[in-house]
Design brief:
Largest interface: A-B, 43 and 28 residues
Order of helices and strands of chain B: EEHHHHHHHHHHHHHH
Oligomer: heterodimer
Strand content of chain B: under 5%
Number of helices of chain B: 14
Helix content of chain B: over 70%
Radius of gyration of chain B: 20 Å
Number of helices of chain A: 9
Helix content of chain A: 25-40%
Strand order of the largest sheet of chain A: 6-7-8-3-9-10
Shape of chain B: globular
Distance between the termini of chain B: 31 Å
Strand content of chain A: 25-35%
Structural class of chain A: alpha/beta
Structural class of chain B: mainly alpha
Chain lengths: ~270, ~350
């Protein structure tokens, strides 16, 4: 097992009295692109909320570099761990460069509002996500895919070694989904950041993840490299979906093909 | 964007448009202020006013300016500043242009506090104190009801609207209990008026502004981050609940104390932040311009009430008419833009 800066053990995650997960233990391997998958209401987004300090576990603790994340100051966490939530709000009339610049907040202060570092890092983040030519445009005017790249640029500008993404491809069409995931994979490879994403699409997860966490009913069913753990049995167990798993002709990663509906008159093979 | 960097690695960021709007409005406010002090049964030219303010006037002029007219102006400025600031904070926290203290019920709460004193009988100081308490108590109550893992903007608006409806009923009942002699005093207070304000009316609010204004301004960057949504703001290292508690209590205090000083001057808290946003074209909340514009609206409205209309109307009548018209226009345009 490789080292891990972020993880938690014995986690009991609950909203008020509704318990989502009990005695949950996870570790995010360093420099991995970790993807959490599972059926609706399996607790994957809740786990991400706990890892990102948004939800305080009822018992157990999320550890960031060995310290309880809830005992660390919010700003200190924000300099190590970035988060792109599911539906962030772009204020009316905000420009692209202005929004990306907000990612610098945890590094700024009342007397240090815009350092040369801030300026350089914002420019670099916009270049890395390919939005550098949109700087003066209003965020409201952009397409869904462009907007998601702008939000990613904001998260990058935060310059955190760890970056958590909650369903970064929801609401995007298939081409923009792949565009965003390709971008994530590139950021992971080129900048050596540890990424953790919640994804809905199992095939996207199997293609892009270096480490997969499969959850069901608040429990981790399997965790590991997709090639090792994604099998027809696992998919049946996690999603209750009969399927075949073949090699993705593009990448050789596991590809899940749902079984055809048994129709009257056809012979089951 | 203007960036100022000092050798000591300090850096500051200014939006030229925000700076320009703020400066122009400040100068306008000062100009109107000088004209306001010059106006009255003993008219004074702007030059005389400035001479007197800098200590070069005759004892009579000195008395007229510092004891009779300046307190009214300063109270108006302080009330406008407080309302503009508080309104900007509320609208940003609630993420809704209608999230002003007039709509949320704090103003009605202050009125309830004042009416209780009018009904029972009490000094002006007791009335002011009771109004402040009423506003603060309403703020606390709304906060307790709306609280559920942190105040959610929309819930705060709904609870506030309900609360203001209840309090309007309570106020109506109290009005029927008020002795006939005091009813006109109550009515005048309820409209919001700067008539006969002395230094003792302005001082509590001025003291509160001296403490709360820097505190709120220091929270402005965090407030701007919460406009991205609670999750995104937390991800950026903002302690969302703490910042919100601080801002809410500061803004409620300012509204309650300004109601204590001049009654519930309506619609300034709703209009000023809006005008500030439109004029500065800044994305997100701009506290300082909203405060300056609040002051400007209030003193201009007071002058209009005094001079342009017969019968020396209270300032609240004018801000109510202007603000109400602005609200209708706002609803119409926002609706057309599909934001409401």
């Amino acid at each position: 097992m490789s080292t891990s800066r972020l993880g938690g053990s014995g986690l009991r995650l609950a909203y008020d009295r509704r318990v989502v997960a009990e005695d949950l233990t996870v570790a995010v391997p360093d420099r991995s692109f970790t993807v959490i998958i599972g059926p609706n209401a399996c607790g994957k987004s809740t786990l991400l909320r706990a890892l990102s300090r948004l939800l305080k576990p009822a018992t157990g603790a999320v550890l960031l570099d060995g310290s309880d994340i809830h005992r660390l100051p919010a700003r200190a966490v924000a300099r190590t761990l970035g988060l792109l939530p599911q539906s962030p709000i772009a204020p009316d009339g905000i420009g692209v460069a202005e929004l990306v610049a907000r990612g610098r907040y945890p590094h700024q202060g009342l007397l240090r509002q815009w350092s040369p570092d801030d300026e350089r890092i914002v420019a670099e983040s916009m270049a890395a996500t390919g939005v550098d030519d949109l700087g003066d445009r209003l965020v409201d005017e952009l397409s869904g895919g462009q907007r998601q790249r702008v939000w990613l640029a904001m998260a990058l500008a935060q310059q955190t070694p760890l970056l958590l993404l909650d369903e970064p491809t929801t609401y995007l069409d298939i081409a923009h989904q792949i565009e965003v995931l390709d971008l994530c994979a590139r950021l992971h490879e080129e900048q050596g950041r540890t990424l953790v994403a919640v994804l809905h699409d199992l095939n996207h997860a199997a293609r892009y993840a270096t480490h997969l966490i499969a959850m069901r009913g608040g429990q981790v069913v399997a965790a590991g490299e997709p090639r090792r753990i994604v099998t027809a049995e696992l998919v049946e167990e996690v999603f209750g979906l009969p399927c075949r798993v073949i090699d993705d002709p593009e990448t050789g990663t596991p590809l899940v093909v749902p079984a055809a509906r048994a129709r009257a008159g056809t012979v089951a093979r | 964007m203007i960036v100022i960097r000092t050798p000591g690695r300090l850096s500051f960021r200014l939006q030229p448009r925000v700076l320009a709007v703020g400066t122009v409005c400040l100068l306008l406010t000062l100009a109107v202020g000088v004209l306001a002090v010059g106006h009255g049964e003993y008219p004074m030219s702007p030059a005389d006013v400035l001479r007197t303010l800098t200590g070069g006037g005759s004892p009579a002029e000195e008395f007229i300016v510092t004891q009779l007219r300046l307190p009214r102006l300063v109270t108006g400025l302080a009330v406008g500043t407080a309302l503009g600031l508080a309104g900007a904070v509320f609208q940003s926290l609630v993420r809704n242009p209608l999230g002003s203290p007039d709509v949320l019920g704090f103003t009605q709460g202050a009125a309830t506090g004042a009416l209780v004193v009018v009904a029972v009988g009490g000094s002006s100081a007791a009335l002011a104190g009771s109004a402040a308490l009423g506003g603060i108590a309403t703020g606390l109550l709304i906060y307790l009801i709306a609280w559920r893992r942190g105040v959610h903007g929309y819930r705060l608006v709904l609870v506030g609207i309900g609360m203001s409806a209840i309090l309007t009923g309570v106020n109506g009942y109290l009005m029927t209990r008020v002795p006939l002699m005091s009813a006109s005093r109550a009515m005048l207070w309820l409209t919001g008026s700067l008539d006969g304000r002395g230094w003792s009316d302005a001082l509590p609010l001025l003291a509160a502004l001296a403490v709360l204004m820097p505190a709120l301004l220091a929270c402005a960057p965090a407030l701007r981050m919460t406009e991205l949504g609670d999750d995104a703001a937390s991800g950026l290292g903002v302690s969302v609940h703490r910042v919100r508690m601080l801002l809410l209590s500061g803004a409620v205090l300012l509204v309650a104390l300004s109601a204590a000083a001049a009654g519930p001057v309506p619609f300034v808290a709703l209009t000023a932040p809006h005008l500030a946003r439109r004029l500065t074209r800044a994305p997100g909340v701009t506290l300082l311009p909203a405060a300056v514009i609040g002051a400007l609206i209030t003193v201009v409205a007071d002058q209009v009430a005094l001079r342009a209309l017969p019968g020396q109307l209270p300032v609240g009548v004018v801000t109510g008419v202007i603000g109400g018209g602005y609200l209708v226009w706002l609803l119409a345009t926002e609706r057309r833009a599909g934001r409401l």
